[in-house]
Amino acid sequence: MTQDQDPRHPQLPDRKLLMERSVPGRRGVRLPPSDVPEQPMPDAALLREELPLPELSQPEVVRYFTLLSQLNYSVDTQFYPLGSCTMKYNPKINDQMASLQGLAWVHPLAPTEAIQGALKLMYRLQGYLTELSGMAATSLAPMAGAHGELSGVLMIRAYHQSRNDEQRKVMLVPDSAHGTNPASAAMGGFQVQSIPSNERGNMDLAALKKAVGPNLAGIMLTLPSTLGLFENDILEICDVVHRAGGLVYGDGANMNALIGQAKLGDLGFDVAHINLHKTFSTPHGGGGPGAGPVCAGGRLAPFLPTPVVEREDGPSGETYRLGTPPQTIGKVAAFHGNFGVLVRAYAYIRSLGAEGLRQVSEDAVLNANYLLARLKNAYDLSYDRTCMHEVVLSASRQKKQGVRGLDIAKRLLDYGFHAPTMYFPLIVDEALMIEPTETESKETLDAFIEALLAIAKEATTTPDLVHNAPYTTPISRLDEARAARQPDLRWRA
Ligand SMILES: *Cc1c(COP(=O)(O)O)cnc(C)c1O
Prior knowledge:
Layout: H1 18-21, H2 58-70, H3 92-98, H4 101-104, H5 116-133, E1 137-139, H6 145-162, E2 170-174, H7 180-187, E3 191-195, H8 205-211, E4 216-222, H9 234-243, E5 247-252, H10 264-267, E6 271-274, E7 294-296, E8 308-314, E9 317-323, H11 339-375, E10 380-381, E11 391-394, H12 396-400, H13 405-414, E12 421-422, E13 431-434, H14 442-461, H15 463-467, H16 480-485
Parallel strand pairs: 2-3, 2-4, 4-5, 5-6
Antiparallel strand pairs: 1-7, 6-7, 8-9, 10-11, 11-13, 12-13
Helix pairs in contact: 3-11, 5-11, 6-7, 11-14
Bound molecules: pyridoxal-5'-phosphate.
């Protein structure tokens, strides 16, 4: 798609496509004379008469592709306030470690004697995650958060089945939950029942007490909740579920507020997954790769997915091998998990150390509360209380002026920022969910705040300016459904 030069932005770079830049006869490289004998051409039916290829000089090609690469928004170039995604800076040392020859080229079918170092790394990472989550054991096999969730709910199912408690079919999920939670529970064969939130943004304890019974399999909880709030009654919630014979699943996709501060196992959770591609700093977005290790307390540890790396101390030192938990739910993925992501998480944890990890959560929470304090007069807050690692604003007030959350998110692009997460959690009207993470400077946060304050003013004074944003991106507003269903991926003359 092309766009004519916008007179309001004469500095916009040339958006012409490669074919449109082509000039007949222009060349980027000249091939050397052939030093091999000429061969007969394939059958004429296989040859095309017409094959338009772009003709350009070398610098034109370099500029074109460099320009394309710059259209990618990335956390290495700009601030990425996408709530619930933890788009934080990923220290480059993690990538360097993951590309070490001995780790990057290790073959998944290599005999365990030949990969002792890789197994030792996995064993140690299992130990760190077990410690940070306050659980008993960890399997690194799942390759995404949702994959960890499915593994965890299958473990809950296997646990009840092992006790001939087959009637336990109900999985409770709060109405603020990430969409993957009810989806995972349903895929695991459970009946999903929603629990409402109360006026403070916490789970409605009375509703929970009414919902538990002999059919209760468990509850899936996010802590802090997806509203970015601590669940004040968490101890009592776990207690109510346990006394009814259920188990507590923790969605630990975002541990940025908790690492080094509180352990899910200590609070009463029985099983949780952790997104290494969020909290533990593997680059993500665009669909992967990720890793969603699942950590289990004493009751569920025997059901963990295989393999789990085990250590044996013999007369000639320690050895590591791939083990199988006694009542395992089996394999959830090929081989041993997403190894490169595991190496990055290991490097991240080792380079920060315990003190550094604690600092991560302190700074993440401080940054989110700084945004909250400076923005709460310009935007609505559904729950006016201290937040954890993210703050959920509401554009209800702007909606009354005819400006929606979507318009605000689009206008932010003109100010040079990625849009926040929008319209999630579903229970917040016109939600704008912002997670600054611990890696942003005060200057960046201030610039972002100034942009949001300016947009709030524009919504009152020049709402049409906001409606028609963005003005500075290659294309403005997509018909998103059509773009997904009928993608236009090919150049046509
Ligand atoms: C990101 C996220 C997930 C899902 O993780 P994926 O790796 O995308 O499958 C689940 N729950 C919460 C709260 C999340 O933020």
